[in-house]
Write a structure and sequence with these properties.
With 81 residues, the protein is α+β, with helices and mostly antiparallel strands. Helix content is 32%, strand content 10%. The chain has a two-stranded antiparallel sheet. The relative contact order is 0.06. The model has no long low-confidence stretch (mean pLDDT 81).
Length: 81
Amino acid sequence: ARRNELEQQEAAVLNMRREQKAAQGAAAKKVDTPRWQFRFENIKAESAGRDGRAKGGVGARYGIPPQDRKKGQIKIPTKVE
């Protein structure tokens, strides 16, 4: 009985994830080109946070360059612990 309940819960979770993924895919506008498929989706500028570097911001998936790569920043470690 317990195992049956667990299997039902797992099936419900899997079904919910599939539905969420399908809804997310349907929300994105797709543009096919001969080489790539571009997907555009609406964003909120507020999700980037106060400084524009929050995890929910656009481009966070690809990594945000660290601050030490900016011009004028010291790139040589001044202290080793």
